[in-house]
Each structure stands twice: as structure tokens, then as C-alpha cells.
Amino acid sequence: MSAKSDKVCVIAGAGAGNGAAFARRFAAEGYRCVLLARSTGAISRIAREVKGALAISCDVGDEDSVADAFGRIRRELGPPTVLIYNAAARHFANLDGTTPEMFEEAWRAGTFGAFLCAKEAVADMRAAGGGNIVLIGATASVRGGANFLAFAAAKAGLRSVGQSLARGLAAENIHVAHVVVDGVIDMPLTRERMPDRPDALFMDPDAIAEAVFQVTRQPRSAWTFELDLRPAAESW
């Protein structure tokens, strides 16, 4: 790896859709990007395609795993200046179809992991005099559907974590934002699963990444906490 950087973006819950797009966008601005996921298969491929990126296996719901990952980030790249939290366990079921294990896994990936990653990142951001945290939410963050029990609980929890962080850290020049992604991400897997869905109802990951990047550039006099993103054709 090359020398440490003063611009390090950690993407927790990275993958082939939004995670890869976040890495491309921030790398284009000179950031060293870190891709965190439990499995390194997809993120290793992304890291090879994005200049200066680093893929690290990390279970965001495990305290030791998160501490180890952030320790490696500091040693190899430097302290994080941006944290994008994109992790989630996508369990979609109603009460009868949701097991206690599914509910806990969704909470650990979607809410508890954000708490753990924020604890690590904020320590460095305080030392640096500021930073940015962006939490990626969903429609379920603000509206629980019948078949989204565990997922909605985790996403609503993430939103509340974000509100508390934003209120508590603003005075320390740490901008915390929550982005509601209301739509289906345009990627080969979703196209295959939804072959009849109109093009206008898919969301371009690069467009989402651009919006997230711009949030991290906002002046303190006009910070966004919550940003809704959806296709123009989406019914809401």
C-alpha cells in the first residue's frame, strides 16, 4: 500500500451496487476508500477496480471485528474522515415468517453495527477537528411494511441513532446525515429479479453516490440531516 492519506472514506456494508459507486465517487476526489463486508469476494473485485481502495473482511455486528478493522485502517491508510454506513441484513417477512435469529441479525447489521463503527470513527474525527458520517436508510426507515418487520425495525433504529449522533456531534464539527433511498437499485441482480419493472423505476447507484458525496461537502451553515432519494417516477 502507498503512504497514508488525510482523506479516508470507510464504506461499511460495501457491495456491487451502492458500495462500489460510493468508492468510485470518493476515490475520484482523492480519497483512499475502505470497503468493509463479511465476505471479501465482491469487495476484493471492487478494490482492484478502484484506485487506492482496500478491502477488509469485517462483521459490523461484532465489536472485536469492527475494532480490528478500524485498527488496520489507521495503520495502513490513516484515520477515517468519512464513514458511510450501508450495511443491512435483508430479511423480508411478516411476524409469522420472522424468527428471533432473523430479527437479531437485522438489528446487529443495521443498527448495532452503525453504533460500533461510529464509536471508532468519531474518536478519529474528534482528533482531526471534524468529519462526516452518512447513514444509508430506506423507505422502511420511516414506514414499516407488513413484510418488512425485522428490516424496518433495524432501519428505523438506524435513523434514530443518526438523529442522536447528529444532535450530539454537530458542535464538534462532525456532520451526520441520514439518506433515505426509496427505490430499487439498478444492478444486474435486481434487473434479473424484476424483468418487467420499467427503467424509470430503477435508481442509478452513481447518482446516489453523487448525492451522498455532495452531502459531505456542505458548509456548516446549511447541513442536511435527512435526504430523500427516489426516481422521479416512484409513487410516494
Descriptive labels:
236 residues, Rossmann fold, 18% strand, alpha/beta, seven-stranded parallel β-sheet, two-stranded parallel sheet
Summarize the structure.
It is built from seven helices and nine strands. By secondary structure, it is an alpha/beta fold. Helix 2 links the parallel strand 2 and strand 3 (54-57).
The name of the CATH topology is Rossmann fold
Measured as a percent range, the helix fraction is 40-55%
Q: What order do the SSEs take from the amino end to the carboxyl end, as H and E? A: EHEHEHEHEHEEHEHE
The number of helical segments is 7
Count of distinct structural domains: 1
Broad structural category? alpha/beta
Compute the separation of the termini in Å: 46 Å
CATH homologous superfamily classification? NAD(P)-binding Rossmann-like Domain
Our Rg estimate from Cα atoms comes to 17 Å
Secondary structure: number of strands: 9
Q: What can be said about the biggest beta sheet?
A: 7 strands, parallel
Q: Shape from CA axes? A: globular
Show unreliable segments: none
> What's the CATH C level?
Alpha Beta
**Could you tell me the mean pLDDT?**
96
**Order of strands in the sheet with most strands:** 3-2-1-4-5-6-9
Q: Any idea what the CATH architecture is? A: 3-Layer(aba) Sandwich
Strand-residue proportion: 15-25%
Protein name: SDR family NAD(P)-dependent oxidoreductase
InterPro entries: NAD(P)-bd_dom_sf, SDR_fam
Pfam families: adh_short
